Every structure is written in structure tokens, then in C-alpha cells.
Amino acid sequence: MVVSDVAELRAILAGPQPAAADYAMRVVDCLLSAAQQLGASDLHLQPAAGGLEVKLRIDGVLQQAALLPREAGPRVVGRLKVLAGLLTYCTDRPQEGRIRPGEPHSGSSDPADSANLPDSTGSSALAAGGVEMRLSTFPTLHGERAVLRLFGAARQFARLDDLGLHPSIRPVLDRLLGETSGVVLVSGPAGSGKTTTLYACLRELAARSRGERSLLSIEDPVEMAVEGVAQTQVNPAAGLDLAAGVRALMRHDPEVILIGEIRDPPTARAAMQAGLTGQLVLSAFHAGSAAETVGRLLDMGIEPYILRSGLLGVLSQRLLRRLCDCARWSDDPDDRLGLPVASTRVPAGCKQCGRTGYRGRVLLAELLLPESGPTGQAILARAEADAIERLAVESGMVTRWQRAAEMVEAGVTGAAEVRRTMGFGGVGVEQSAG
């Protein structure tokens, strides 16, 4: 089966008859295959009064793919649960599992599941073409909601050169990764590609070290195996959370530690302590900008002198959709949406881009270096995020808004996409892209 856009998927899903014994298996096979072909990062199955809504997140945007009959919803979700090794008869509590291609999954089902889900030994996983997935289920008013995260798309970004970092950022990040101690953070909102960037950094370090550096990780969850790295997944039931994991890894002679994400003060303190005692620490952090990352760490109780000494850099990033060739140029102020640009390309839509006007995404990033004099002094003085950002700009940092304006003027993306991703605060017509 070859699927080129969501409309084709909708037509294909209209074929199987819900009364057929193999309905759930055929639908799941189709969804997993199509999700990979269309480059989706997530597959949503949302039960509603009118049926099971199927949505795909493509290039960061949810697209309605189909509406399956309501009575088919439990069977389709149940099929996925079998593949992920979850308890199919438990529908009143959240569950999480993985679907690994080619790996048999018997699950734990009742006779009704067996009757409705024939041949539940992993053929659907094979249809995904080698992509590993994480399934999460959650009870809702109209039935179980299921979300499938596909990890395969990140495989194409194996090393730093594949990310598309700005030429001014790439060598600086290289230098930071060459340090033997300190903390490098990759920040941004959910879905901004932080984990992909961290894995690229980890692969870069593994390739450079050729086995001569001790590379360890503690993650929640481990999204992809990286050769040459000892990776560990948190286990809250056993008392192994991120902070405890970092403290335990310190006794395993680490040189580089990847922490999946800094979410709370204990993990932040453990990360900074590791960075100050001779390890290079990489981690993700949820924040809207590089300066906001520093501000939030201060709010978590990290002392300013520790941040000034231990934080090597903050790479804050976003993913913007790249305009298709069908886009047209416009100098209409309404199309510029207040961005400081002379003109912008406007999405049109064609068969090649699935009528969306966009094809793929591009990385937008800013890099803050606390080591610069004025910025470091601002951190020591517990300055607000906007003051830290202003001083960082005076020291040479190019902000995310400036980079976004450059991309719009170059025709890579459009003003509408910048506003969709970054909002309407932070830059207006009075600000310059310089």
C-alpha cells in the first residue's frame, strides 16, 4: 500500500467493513504503514460520540485523517494494545507500552479480544517497516484514547550535520561538546525536536570518542538506542527517577551523562552537581527561550554562582514548517503579520505538499553562552529573563526572532508559520531583524 497524502488514507480506510473478523488488524496495518509513509510523528485515536477520530501529526500539525465507526473503536485500540503487550481487558486506567517491529506480542486478552483480533502476533508491527513506536492509552468519556509516538523519523538525523543548525551555531556547539565538564541544555516547548538534537549530540560524542569515553544516560523513556552509550530508563516503582539515576550513575565512572529532561529541582541540582564535578552533562529543558531557561533554573533554586560556573550553554530551538515550491511571494502587510520583513511567501497548496503548502521542517535555534561577561553578571545578579536576553544580544547572541525573520525573508518559511509556532509576543513591526 502506497499513501501519498491524508486524503488517500481516508479513502483506503473506507474500504474495510467493520463486520469483518479481520477489520481491526487491517485498519491498524493501514494506519501504521501510512503514518510512516507520510512522515507522521504521532498517531491519535480519539473516541467521540460520532466515532473514532483518526488524526496524524505531520510536520508538527494535527491533520484529520478519518472517522471510523464508533463500534470499531475498542477493537482498533485493542489491536494496538495487543501489539504493545498491554492488558486489553483493562480499559479504566492509563497504560503505556512499546511496539517493536518483528517482535511477537501475545498481550493479555479475553476470548472476545481473540475473536475480534485474529493473528495478533505482530504482523502489524512488521507493516511499520522497522519503526519503533510508543503507545499510550487513557480512559475518556467515550472510550479509550490512544496515542502512538513514532520514533523512526529521528533516525534520519543521525549526527549534528544532519540537523540543519545555523552555520554560526554549529562550531560553537562543537566546542561545547568538546568540554570535559559542565552542562549543555537544549530547550524549547514540547515537539520542538529537543530529543532529536540530544541524540545527535550523543552520537557525535560516541563517534568522536571511539569507545574511549564513558557515555551514560538516564531517560524517561529511552526513545532510541545509541551505539556506544549505556542507556537506562527510569523506573519509579523501584525508586529510580531521573535525579536518583544521575546520582547512581556518578558511581559508574562517567565522562558524559545524558539526562532525558530536567523537570524538577532535584534533577536540576543533580545535573549541575555532575557538571561541576567533572562530567559533561547534556539534557533537555522546557522553556520558551534560552534566557527563560536560565530564569527558570534560578526559580528552581539553583544558586546563581552555580549556574554561572556550571552552565556551558543553552540551545533553544523550534521547528518551523518549510514552504513548498508552490508558495507565492506577497508584500501585503496583512500577510507579514507584524514581522519586521519586507515580504513573505504565502502557502498555496498542491499535490506534492498534500494541499498544505508545506513540505518538511527546518530548525530554528538561538544559543546563549553564560560565559560572556555581561550575561554572566546578569545571572549572578538574578536578573529577569528579558534583561539576560538583552545583554546576551549585546554580547553577540542572535535571537530566535531574528533568525525567524531571516528565514522568512529568504523564503524558507512564512510569517504565518512563524506566528503559528512562536505566537504573537516578543516581536512586532517596531523591532528589527538586524
Concise overview:
By secondary structure, this protein is an alpha/beta fold. 34% of the residues lie in helices and 24% in strands.
Topology:
Layout: H1 6-13, H2 23-37, E1 40-48, E2 51-58, E3 61-68, H3 73-83, E4 95-99, H4 111-116, H5 123-127, E5 133-140, E6 143-150, H6 170-177, E7 182-187, H7 194-209, E8 215-219, E9 230-233, H8 242-249, E10 256-262, H9 265-276, E11 280-285, H10 290-299, H11 304-310, E12 311-323, E13 328-330, H12 333-336, E14 344-346, E15 358-368, H13 373-380, H14 385-394, H15 400-409, H16 415-422
What is the approximate shape?
A: globular
Helix content: 25-40%
Structural class, by secondary structure, is alpha/beta
Distance between the termini: 49 Å
Q: Biggest sheet, open or closed, and with what strands and sense?
A: 7 strands, mixed
The unreliable regions are: 105-128, 429-434
The total strand number stands at 15
Determine the strand fraction and express it as a percent band: 15-25%
Radius of gyration of CA atoms, rounded to a whole number:
23 Å
Number of helices: 16
How do the strands line up in the largest sheet? Answer: 9-8-10-11-7-12-15
What is the mean predicted local confidence, pLDDT?
A: 89
